[in-house]
From TrEMBL:
Organism: Lobosporangium transversale
Matches recorded under Pfam families: Acatn
Transmembrane segments: 109-134, 177-194, 206-228, 249-268, 288-308, 375-394, 406-425, 437-457, 540-561
Lineage per the UniProt record: Eukaryota, Fungi, Fungi incertae sedis, Mucoromycota, Mortierellomycotina
Broad class of the protein's primary localization: membrane
SUPFAM superfamilies the UniProt entry points to: MFS general substrate transporter
An annotated GO BP: acetyl-CoA transmembrane transport
Name this protein carries in UniProt: Acetyl-coenzyme A transporter 1-domain-containing protein
Amino acid sequence: MSKKTEPQTSSNRSSAGTVVTDTNHADNNGSAVHSNARSSALDLKQNINNSAMLTHKRRGDSLLAEDEREELMMAQRSESTSDAIRESLQGSLASETMGTLSGADKWNFILLVVLYLLQGIPVGLTFGSIPFLLKAKMSYSQIGIFSLAHYPYSMKFLWSPIVDAVYNKDLGRRKSWIVPIQLMTGLMFFWLGMNIEDWMAQDQIAVGTLTVVFFILIFFCATQDIAVDGWALTLLSKENLSYASTAQTIGLNTGYFLSFTVFLAFNSSEFSNKYFRTIPQDYGLVPLGGYLKFWAMMYLAITLWLVLMKKEGRSHSEEDDIGIKAVYKIILKIIRLPHMKSFMIVLLTAKIGFIANDAVTALKLLEKGFSKEDLALAVLIDFPFQIIFGYYAVRWSSGSRPLKPWLWAFFAHLACCVIAMLLVWGFPSDGVVTTSYFYMVLITTVATSFTSTVAFVSMGAFMTVIADPVIGGTYMTLLNTLSNFGGTWPRFFVLEAVDYFTVSTCSVIDSKGKEFSCTAEPGKTLCTDLGGECILRQDGYYLVSSMCVLIGGLLLIFYIAPTIRYLESLNPKKWKLDQK
């Protein structure tokens, strides 16, 4: 089964000549339970950012004009872009040594963890919990519309140069963005907490309004991520920079799981009644509105502390400030490289085979009767396996052919998608989830997590090899954005297709004497109220999922695998900007 999303996420940061690159999962698509939660990313999954620190030195002669070369070197000092939820795995695991944290570094490390935790709260809600809560009243096509709220996390590179270059000198380069962004996020959380319960209680939820609100929240979250990524490089001392990835892993994971796993469990009346109540109630212990208002207060309190208590040291001289145009010029030059177009097609199409599993399988299990708390439990159990798999994936991808594990993982991931579809098809007809069925779901989830982790790390290793060290940050930003977007753009169309190909009608007619559809939840409710029964004539999930796997398999055999082997055989110099 497949994850994130994604939240899905890749970080590419540089400061004062140090380029921090990460190799996003780009949506770490690892488990059915995570599928809506990591697009990207995440898959959010996704999903935590890899912060392997690579100090790139300029090498070789370039055919770029001298003024452009100067802009490139300046741009190298200040990139900060990141994407969705699992990318810190490789950064954390690849760090062989770490310095001993001093007293000041310890407090700055804690600050980074808190800032990344705040970032994980809206990501966990948008990529994880909200789609599950919406499924009770929305069709797949409506959830597809809501999935558009994921887009800012996959497109951060479009405005990251602006975040890096525009700031108030008195407040500080990073606080100039972090303070107002967190202030606006806190205020929006509070306003949302005051209204969202009423919105969710309506028979017809305004999906457009929800999508716009959460799109703005994720835009704020993505912008805060860019600024915090850059600040991490100056908050910690040079010898302890490797701890930035650890802070990211702890913070983003904690925030994500609080908003997805923990919140979903405590919002469930079944979980609350089973473990915390003697008298059953029809509502959970933690309402969505109350949860949002609590984190609104936390956002505002932490932001106030930043303004009053935390000073941002000057770490950039005036010469470090760059023109925004420089980074965009670099991106255009990279895209025009001879072999880049083929690689871009691979990145944008490679996840088509998995996207139905990523976007729909968990929701389909929920629809059939798999409980939200069981889904949350599967997420929790799966996470430590990701860490273990990441360690071995780094070792397997360190040879002369880093993409060989990626190709094998691609085949295995497609197989896991087929197994996941069969599990949905074989859901117990009486709706009772047995222990053996839960274990089958869990094993498939962990197996898919293994394939996605191997693919993520392997692709990241290849990107690191081919990225031009002169402009490594921008190079990695572009590649990871393309990879993330490859798992984001098909999601909307797949969710729409599931509803389009689903045929379900009520056994009785409506008040106008007409047959009506039971595809969406309101139609099912109306049918029940009229004393009828929904008759499923065709489930679009199986058709769409099968088509995705078929298209993914054909792409793999006839285009992706041959192209990957060819690109892998090229001399790394062919990927440099000075090679024509």
